[in-house]
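Sample pair:
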Amino acid sequence: MIIKVRLGTRDDIDALVEVNCSAVETWHHFSIKGRGDTASYNELSPWERTMHGGPWMDHSALARYWDDIDQLGIVPLVAEFDRRVVGHLDLIFSDEQPLGDFLYLDVLMIHKAYRRKGAATALVKEAEKLAENRKVGLMLVRPEQYEGPSGLTYRSCGFEKAFDVYEMETTISRAEIESKVQTMSIPRTQKAPIKTHIMICGWISISRKTWYYTVNPNLDDLYRFSASDLTLSAKIATRTYFLRVQQNFFNHTKGALFLWAPLPLDGKELRATFRASKSAARWLGIRTLTTRTIERYVSMLEKQGFRKGSKTDTYLAKKLSHGDPKPSFNRRETKPLRMTAEFEESPFY
């Protein structure tokens, strides 16, 4: 079976929807109460279809998502067999703290009828060629399951475990914003602060993409999965923190926290920012605030009253020839990652 890999275009939208829908055995209605009765594909609204796997499940949703592809600089690769699109892989080149310059392998999907025939491997190898051509020394990916088909595919291509992501939770009690913290809305002109700030809370993806989908004010209702939210900048002295508290769409007493902190990290400022985050959550009626963070920051969040939950994701990485001789996700030697003694760093590895 000879697989051809090329750059995807808007002309591939129908084929990409077919690829992704092939993995769904049963379709369901969705509402604010959650998943509902079974239904046929044609009986569902575009939003209900996206609830089964994102914008790739509906033509109109994917057409809108293509605008995000352009905005985020995503490189969409498609795999063809006998001129039929049988899979795709989205790539994002980024340069952000604490990872540096890298290529992120975002969404990988192979048509159910064409799996285990080399399409996924062909896409990953093409991604590596692009990274080598751009002289990027590291590839990063979050497989759907570490021990599942995608995890095994990446590991067979030379990827190794880099770090884990954990779910953390705290119960919201009375919390007041300290007088030294000035909160305000984030300006529409604010670009993703990926080189000056570290994403401590909200590891659902890399910092660049998470910022786009949590802070971007121009996304329409098709991408809204929260009932209410507050997106704020918190200024302490001369430094600015960015945070978003997002109310759960299906359970309004629960919410999620996203937080970007400037470098170097400061313990007292972080405490004040977490208090502001909890105050915002309480204002929205949230009683249980959750977030996802990498193992490096688990102890930091525990000091702020968060409880460590289960491991949710495992990131894999592959060192390329253009990278540092010994890549380290710890990067203790870099001055921007210097922290106060209270928040001693733990390594990614």
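The chain is about 25% helix and 35% strand.
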